[in-house]
Amino acid sequence: MDDRGSGSVRVLHVDDDARLLELAATFLEREGGFEVTTTTDVDEALAILDADPVDCVVSDYDMPGTDGLAFLSAVRDRDGDIPFILFTGKGSEEIAGEAIAAGVTEYLQKESATEQYTVLANRIENAVSKHRAERAARDADERRKRMLERVTDAFFSLDRSLRVTYANHRAAEWMAHDGDAEGEQLVDLVPGAAAAFVERCRLALDERRAVTFEERVPGGDGNRWVEVRAYPDDQGLSVYFRDVTGRKERRRELERSERRFRGIFLEHSNPMLLIDPESGAIENANHASAAFYGYSRAELRSMNIDDINTLPPEEVARRREQADERDREQFRFEHTLADGTVRTVEVFSSPVPVGDDTLLFSIVHDVTDRNA
């Protein structure tokens, strides 16, 4: 098991001088509390790395059959970013330059005094701490990306110049981007909606507040509607969006249906009422209702059906319960008009959806003369 994330620091020290290895291990274990494994053989060192990964490699430069930079290359093939400290007595600007170019973490020349091991311990501790912090940040970023790839919303993040720093696969599909969108400007990725997107995203960044909006954007089968939610942070902007084309179309169709219904409702020759089935409040009344009852439409909308019914409230409640048990009901009532006249009416009622509510759509027929 690779437990390099634990508190202990395991060091592999490779040098062809066995006496120096023993001395260095003693100081490193005492000075830094490290767990030190030593070897004079590069092949054995690689076998140790394969069997039990460590937190840091310390290596001499000049060793029989190889050198520290060739060993570094072999280590990097196994672990691309493990801290590697070249601790050598063969120091020169040329070797130091080669080591830095090869990607060595630290370059440290051996000294005769034992204080060099205190310096080495500090270099190891700093290199491992930095490496662990970078790895933790990468792991957290990878977890976040895996989570964002699983969400159904398209997601991308922007820096403060509105350049894409990450886009999940759904966002890449919307952007019609074949490769990695990272580093691209938003205005170049969504040209069909660039002006609206840039304006609103810039607003969220400048005012440091979340914004939500709907916008038409290019899609694989033509223009589509998306709902966009953008959240600013210190690094830039996190943007989520989802396809709401179907919802928009359903909403438009519902609005068209409601407009047709309102047109038919308002102009129909029979009195018609929309009533809240729970409270009995009259939510709407057509022109024929105003003419029949003698109240204006505004007055009717401020009234309750019980203001018109002459039946006792318990009988009205009983009939409402019966109406709730069936989809369509027809009842006979006594309704009082504005001038005090009482008329016998038959009310044909049916529940209808109106917006987010369900109201009782009632058609009123005056049958007073029929019973005379």
Numbering strands along the chain, what is their spatial order in the largest sheet?
2-1-3-6-7
Q: Strand tally, please?
A: 17
Number of helices: 12
The residue fraction in helices comes out at: 40-55%
Any idea of the CATH topology of the largest domain? Rossmann fold
CATH fourth-tier homologous superfamily of the largest domain: Response regulator
Integer tally of domains? 3
Order of helices and strands: EHEHEEEHEHEHEEHHHEEEHEEHHHEEE
Rg calculated over all Cα atoms? 40 Å
- Helix and strand composition category: alpha+beta
**Terminal-residue CA separation:** 97 Å
* Principal-axis shape: rod-shaped
CATH class of the largest domain: Alpha Beta
- The CATH architecture of the largest domain is 3-Layer(aba) Sandwich
Uncertain stretches: 1-5
Output mean pLDDT: 83
Strand content: 25-35%
Biggest beta sheet attributes: 5 strands, parallel
Give an overview of the whole structure.
There is one protein chain. This protein is of the alpha+beta class. It has 3 domains: 138 residues, Response regulator (Rossmann fold, 3-Layer(aba) Sandwich), CATH 3.40.50; 92 residues, Beta-Lactamase; 114 residues, Beta-Lactamase, CATH 3.30.450. The chain is built from 12 helices and 17 strands. The strands form 4 sheets. A 5-stranded parallel beta sheet has the order 2-1-3-6-7, sandwiched between helices. α1 packs across α5 and α2 packs parallel to α3. It is rod-shaped.
